[in-house]
Amino acid sequence: MHSLAQRANTLSSIITTGVFIVMILVSILTIANPPILNNQIRFKSAKPIVSLKNTRNYGATKQKPKENAKFKFDMVADFNDLVDWNTKQVFAYVYVEIDNDDSNNNDNENADKIVIWDKIFDDKSKMYFNQKNIKSKYSLWDYSPELHGRTGTFKLGYNIQPHLGPLTFGTIDLNQTITFPEIKV
Amino acid sequence: MSFNKVSIHSVPAMRVEADEHLGDVFETLGYTESFKYSDTKLILGYSSVALAGLMYYLEKKFKNDFTDRTYVSYLQLAVVSFFIVQFVLYCFTKFVEKGVKYHGTKKNKSISVFTSTKSKFDPNYNITLKLDGNTHKTTIPLNELFFDDGFLSIDAFKSKITGFVESFDKSK
Amino acid sequence: MAMVVTSAFAIWKGLAVITNSPSPLVVVLSGSMEPAFQRGDILFLWNRETYVDVGDIVVYNAPQRSIPIVHRVVHQHVVEEPISKSKKSKTLETSKKTQYLLTKGDNNERDDLPLYGYGKNYLNREKEIIGNVKGYIPKVGYITILITENQYFKYAMFAALAISALFSQD
Q1: Inter-chain contact B49–C47, Cβ cutoff 8 Å?
Q2: C136 and A165 in contact by Cβ < 8 A?
Q3: Cβ-based contacts of C133 with chain A (< 8 Å)
Q4: Rounded to whole angstroms, how far apart are CA atoms B162 and B56?
Q5: Residue ranges of the domains in chain C?
Q6: Which residue in B46, B66, C62, C74 has the fewest CB atoms around it within 10 Å?
Q7: CATH code, C13-162
Q8: What is the ipTM score, two decimals?
Q9: Which stretches of chain A are DSSP H helices?
Q10: What is the tens place of the pLDDT at every residue in A97-155?
């Protein structure tokens, strides 16, 4: 005679063990065979527009205004390579890496990175993206208030979200540099 | 001594009930139960509960703040100690106790008793005695030890064991 | 029974020590990261990297909110700041690198600035991030949401346990 609690306990431990085993197997599969984006992405950005903002929505205050930049760009990208049986969605994002002014610090690992645009691809039949004149979704501002005269590069990052298991990340250099222009008044 | 009603169709239930009364049986043979194994296990068990309690106390005291290096090092110490104690307990059960169900002494003689059943459905109760380095084995069908109402017959159990022990241990 | 609870607690703390996260597994409570994460998904966290990257999904405790928030990093800055010299300080370094982050929920229109509270523009990676999401299991954590948020479910659970205790032997 087993009590209800015992049965519930056994059932839940079987479920937990099962889920963890599946999780480990999926993780091993994903890590052993990481998806790589082989296609070249075509990307072209117009000259950014820099303006001075003084509200909190742009990372600034009245006393300490910050320079913000916005962009327009064209992009052709094919994310089909990233999709496999366990893909729930691909989250793609375009960000700007602002170069370090510090000349003795030439590793760009700690460069400021700011996401300006993103898109969720959750339909496996619509992984091809081709659009012109895309407006940046998010205004760009840095930690320090000034942008004009500084340089940066565009990068594309992607995050593959599985149905279950580990998240996978990747970045691609979009081979496009920018120099922030003077403030437009 | 207390008896529990067990299902006479469940071999594991009967085995557990018989194991629990080994102490009573060997007492009539003049043995005193030694609690050194169960005491060791009890101490190890209490230490691990105390260590878990310590972890809980630390969590409350430091508000579970992982940026506090002091908290993290104390917690690491507690966690490592806990798993060491658990490992010792596991090794003790596996390699020292080795399934000993009863451990007793009479004058300068010591006796260890191991019991087992082959499977959940095999009612043959295998008893192994270790008396002063010599091993003796016997098998008793569990259903012969139980009344039909599910209670253990301590007298039947005693007479079986006494007969078995006296077959090789003539000394009184 | 006490041993089971004790071991479960110790394993939890062991995971916390290994991942360096006060809460190595979290259950998603809001829909702000949909469709990536839904309510009830269980997330596995890791908190040993010095810096996290843009695009990473992190869990943080917002000020004045008791529940942890799971959002994506959209700005990252590593800033070298001078250490305020106190008399007791024995370190020779005069500056320290701190990472500042801005986060956003995938399903939210805008970034998390309103969640940070007045005057706070960034999260401090070292001080405020509980962990970086490495993997997940969908939906399994929904039971904890039911237990904590639905009082009827809680009572039903207790009733079922009590009844099963009455009918079970020993």
Answers
A1: no
A2: yes
A3: 167
A4: 51
A5: 13-162
A6: B46
A7: 2.10.109.10
A8: 0.87
A9: 4-32
A10: 998 765 555 556 678 999 999 999 998 888 999 999 999 999 999 998 999 999 999 99
Residue C123 dihedral angles phi and psi, to the nearest 5°: -95, 145
- Positive or negative, the CA dihedral B17, B19, B24, B25 is positive
The answer to whether the CB of A138 falls within 8 A of the CB of C74 is yes
| Residues of C labelled catalytic | 32, 71, 112
d(C-alpha B120, C-alpha B9), whole Å? 10
Dihedral of the alpha carbons of B44, B50, B54, B56, in degrees to the nearest 10: 110
- Report the candidate in C99, C7, C104, C1 with the shortest Cα–Cα distance to residue C57: C104
Closest by CA to C111, choosing from C157, C54, C39, is C54
Reported pTM: 0.80
Does A143 sit within 8 Å of C137, measured CB to CB?
A: no
Closest by Cβ to C161, choosing from A5, A19, A167: A5
Residue type at B127 in one-letter notation:
I
> Side chain identity at A177, as an amino acid letter?
T
Return the structure tokens found at B162: 């006494």
What is the C-alpha separation between C44 and C50, in angstroms, rounded?
Answer: 18
Residues B24 and B104 in one domain: yes
